[in-house]
Amino acid sequence: MSLGGVDYNRTGMTFATKESTDEYVDSAIAHNIQHSLKNYQYGNHFRHLTELYEAQELTSAINRVVEDINHRFTLDVLTRDFRSSDLSLSAKNLLRDREEPNDILCRVDVKQITEKLRTLLEIKNKPELNIALTDVHRTEIKEYLDLLDLTIDLDMVSISDWNNKAKHTAISQPGMHYAQAKALITTLMDDNVFRELSLKERNSVTKRILSDVRGRMMEDIVLLETMIARPECKVFKLLFSIGEFDMVVFNPQTASCEVYEIKHNVKEYLKTL
Q: Residue 200 and residue 162: Cα distance in Å, rounded?
């Protein structure tokens, strides 16, 4: 990862400027994290992933997990007909907006946008796959991304059942998800209904989509960084029947808890409840 990027790209100054670095991060992550497959333990360890990689279908699987709102490593997420979590969630959030509710994302051509987004993200649906995905593939994808520190499991504790400790998988490389959100914006700009909006309205909708994605990314980043910074504490989300605490930091030495709500806005603040 030298300044000139000679290890990955000998033709240009990949990391010389913020703009060139952003372009690299946004476009190349899903591909470049796969380059170590053939070299790790001489290519023998993740043998099932190697067949996906050689069939050019590993990018599809990784991008499906990143795009899924909960980053789930399930066969359903990996094989079902692709639908954009970012698009559907943003549509719901815009409809529920208290100040300026908007139904534009319900009126656009969702099918066409989804197909264009699939192309940009190199995501294949089940009939297009040459390799039938199995539980072995699913397990090895999770193991591989964990090994690269790209995915980390966070604890989720339910107030109604303390013994039921679920896990939420966080993506430690935010550029992977943000690049997908920007790809969604690109496809929206080609939609006939969306283009009929004024420039101000289009900017407002795209800003809201990116803000929603940044908000989810920020929660993961803050939780991950807090776990690293405070290893003596237990860091987790606390779930109620309705709602949740974004982050609880429990210190067993002092028998105390800190409870946080994590917000993303123009000020990007972290507010303590």
A: 47
Q: How far apart are CA 108 and CA 271, in angstroms?
A: 36
Spatial separation of the C-alpha atoms in residues 65 and 179, rounded to whole Å: 14
How confident is the prediction along the chain (273 residues), in pLDDT tens digits per residue? 344 444 444 444 554 554 555 555 555 666 666 666 666 655 566 678 888 888 889 889 999 999 998 899 999 999 999 999 999 999 999 999 888 899 999 999 999 999 999 998 899 999 999 999 999 999 999 988 888 888 889 899 988 887 777 888 998 887 788 888 989 999 999 999 999 999 999 999 999 899 888 888 888 899 999 999 999 999 999 998 888 999 999 999 999 999 999 887 655 444 444
Rg of the chain (C-alpha set): 20
